[in-house]
Amino acid sequence: MTIDLTPFLGGHGPKYLSIARALAEAVRHGVLAPGMRLPTHRELAETLGVSVQTVSRAYEQAEKSGLVQARVGSGTWIRDAEGDSENEYLRAPAAVTDAAPIDLSIAHTVCPPSHHRRFRDALAELAKSAHADVIGACRPIAGLQHQRERANAWLKERLGVPGETDDRLLCNGAAHGLMLAIATVVQHGDIVLTETLTDHGLIALARTLGFQLHGVAIDEQGVIPEALEAAIVKFRPRAVCLTPTQLNPTGATMENARRDAVAEILLRHDVWLIEDDVHALLEPAGLIPLTARLPQQSFHVTSLTKSTVPGLRAGYLSVPRGQMHHTLPRLRATSWMATPLIFELADYWLASGMVDTLAHEQRQLLAERQSLAARKLAGHAIESRPSSLHVWLALPEPWRAEELQQQARQEGVAITTAQPFLVEQSAMPRRVRISLGAEPDLARLASGLDVLSQLLGEAPPPMLEIAY
C-alpha cells in the first residue's frame, strides 16, 4: 500500500525519528487507523526517498513506543489499541497508599466511610428480614415480583419513566441492560447511531454484537437535532442510542426543549431509541427522559451504580409494550436472572428512602469536588455539571491529550484521553477527562489537580514519545 506522510514530516533530528513522529501524527489525524498494515520497508523508503535502513529504524522506534506491531511473515501494522486504550483506566489499581498513583481516570462515585457503614447496617437488617425467594428463586427470569413492583413505582415517580411492572427487567447493571436492549432490536450488521463521543461500553458492544456504530455531532447539550436527522436520512439506522443526561465523557446534558426536538425526529422517522439514563439521579428532578416522549419505541436503561455506591450493580431496563417476549430470552441467555441479593438491598434502600438520601449526598459531594477542580484549574477551559463525575478539560497549546496523559502518569496522576470514547477514527480532541470521585481523600484529589495545573502551565517535554 501507499501512504502519504509528507504533511507530517519535519522538525529537527535524525530522519528515522522524523518518520516515526510522522506515523504517530498520521494516526492522531485519522490518516492511519488501528489495524492498518503499513507499506514494506522498501516501499516506504522509495516513497520517501530515504534508505531502507532509515525506514527500518523508524519502524523500530514506532514499535518501541507502542504505535506499531511487527508480525513475522505478515509485515508491520498499526497497533490495534482497543484493548490498551480502552481498558488501561479500567484495570484494577494497586491498594491505595500515599505512594499509589492518584486516580483521576475512572468514572466513580464518591464513597465515604458513611456509605460503608450504611451498607453494613443494611446487610445486617437483610440477614433478619430478606424475602425467602432471594435464595430460593429459580424461575423468575425478569426479577422477583416484589423487587420489580418497587422498582416500577420508583422509576415512574422519581425518574418519570412510563410503564408498568410487567415492562421492567432487573439486570446486572446498566451495561447489561444496554446490551439486552440493543440485542432485542438490532441484528448483526445493522447501523446504530450515537453521539460522536460516547461511553466506551457501547463501543465495546458494537464490536461484540457486530453492529455498525456511527457518531452524530454533539454540542454542550449532547446530540444536535439537525445532525441527528441528517444522519438518520443518510444511514437509515435500526436504532439510536443516546445519553441525554451527563454524557460520558463531556458531561453534556439536554434541556427539555432539546429533548422535545430529538424525540420529534425519532417519532417522525420511526427509529428505535435506547436511552442510557444512568446519571439521572445526579441531576435535580425536572429533566424528563426521552422515553417519556415516545414510550412505544424506547428502551430506558438506568442503575444505582453512579448515584449511590459503586458496587451496587442494580440495573433497571424498561421495555416498550410488546417487546418483552423478545428481551427475556436474551436475559436468560446472558445471566438467567439478575442477582436477587443485590436487588434485595436495592429494594430495601428504595423502600426506606435511602436511595434518594445517597443520591442527594452524592450530588453534594460531587459539587464540592467540582468547586475544588474549578479553583485548581482556574484559567483553563473546562466543561462540567455541578454534580458531574468528571471535568472535560480543554488543553492549551501546545499540549496534546496523549502528551499530558503520559506526563501526568510520570508524575503519579492517572487521567483519560478521548480515545476510549471515540466512535469513529478521527483526530483526537485536545481534551482530557478528569474524574473526581475515585479518590476518597480530598487532599489526594487536590494534589492530583495541582500536578495537572502545574503541567498545563509548562511546555510539553521535547520529543515526548507517546504510548499507544
Automatic annotation (TrEMBL):
UniProt-listed SUPFAM superfamilies: PLP-dependent transferases, Winged helix' DNA-binding domain
Q: Which PROSITE patterns does this one have?
A: HTH_GNTR
Q: Which InterPro entries match?
A: Aminotransferase_I/II_large, HTH_trans_reg/aminotransferase, PyrdxlP-dep_Trfase, PyrdxlP-dep_Trfase_major, PyrdxlP-dep_Trfase_small, Tscrpt_reg_HTH_GntR, WH-like_DNA-bd_sf, WH_DNA-bd_sf
Domain of life, source organism: Bacteria
**Which Gene Ontology terms cover its molecular function?**
DNA binding; DNA-binding transcription factor activity; pyridoxal phosphate binding
Q: Which SMART domains match?
A: HTH_GNTR (SM00345)
Keyword set includes Glycosyltransferase: no
What sections of the protein cross the membrane? none
> What positions does the domain HTH gntR-type occupy?
13-81
User: What Pfam families does the record tag this protein with?
Assistant: Aminotran_1_2, GntR
Q: Does the keyword DNA-binding apply?
A: yes
Q: Which UniProt keywords apply?
A: DNA-binding, Pyridoxal phosphate, Transcription, Transcription regulation
Q: What is the similarity comment for this entry?
A: In the C-terminal section; belongs to the class-I pyridoxal-phosphate-dependent aminotransferase family.
Report what the protein is called: GntR family transcriptional regulator
